[in-house]
Amino acid sequence: MTLAQLNELTAREAEAEFLKCCGSHLWAQGMASARPFVSREQLFARADEVSSSLTDEDWLQAFRAHPKIGENKAAAGQTQQEAGWSAQEQSGIQAAATDTIARLASGNRVYEAKFGFIFIICASGKSSDEMLSTLNERLENDPQTELLIAATEQQKITRLRLEKLLNQ
Question: What is the value of pTM for the model shown?
């Protein structure tokens, strides 16, 4: 999709495309209403601006649109395209040892019990061992600090997905 094509979509169609990039409805609505974008840079800048206005609940809604690290299914429904992007982003898991996958699954459960949301990490380019190490480090955080870190990771994912959206 080109930037021009994105600009030409109806508001509802644009929201659906933006939801593939970030599962927050408020974020997707903010992005759809900010069109037309004159450049990719303006699109990315606006994405950051809209992200800065999100509440904790908006972030939690965005997190629910992702599968847990090492899993294929998100708590909230995903489009086929989103599922493909998630699988691509988590490709570092594919070569993981069985023990590492088991420790990630266990760590995911502990993390979710502690913080009330799934472990969010921009997994692109990271090995399963790197993700496991980061998960274990972040388990030491307090809930508010962790929510901020997870939101920052979501913003990285959103940026990558906006680039994928425009390059498909």
Answer: 0.85
CATH number for 39: 1.10.3330.10
Domain assignment of residue 77, given as a range: 3-167
Q: What is the number of H-type helices and E-type strands within the chain?
A: 9, 0
Domain count for the chain, please give it.
1
**What's the whole-number mean pLDDT along residues 29-41?**
98
How far lies 56's CA from each of 29, 72, 158, 163, in Å?
17, 25, 17, 25
Residue 62, amino acid: A
d(CA 108, CA 120): 10
Known active-site residue 66: yes
Sign of CA dihedral 61, 46, 85, 105: negative
Q: For residue 100, give Cα distances in angstroms to 67, 71, 106, 122.
A: 17, 13, 10, 18
Give the orientation angle of helix 143-167 with respect to helix 80-89, to 10 degrees: 110
Say which of 17, 31, 63, 66 is annotated catalytic. Answer: 66
- What percentage of the chain carries pLDDT values higher than 90? 71
Q: Are 83 and 111 in contact (CB under 8 A)?
A: no
Alpha-carbon gap, residue 35 to 166, rounded angstroms: 14
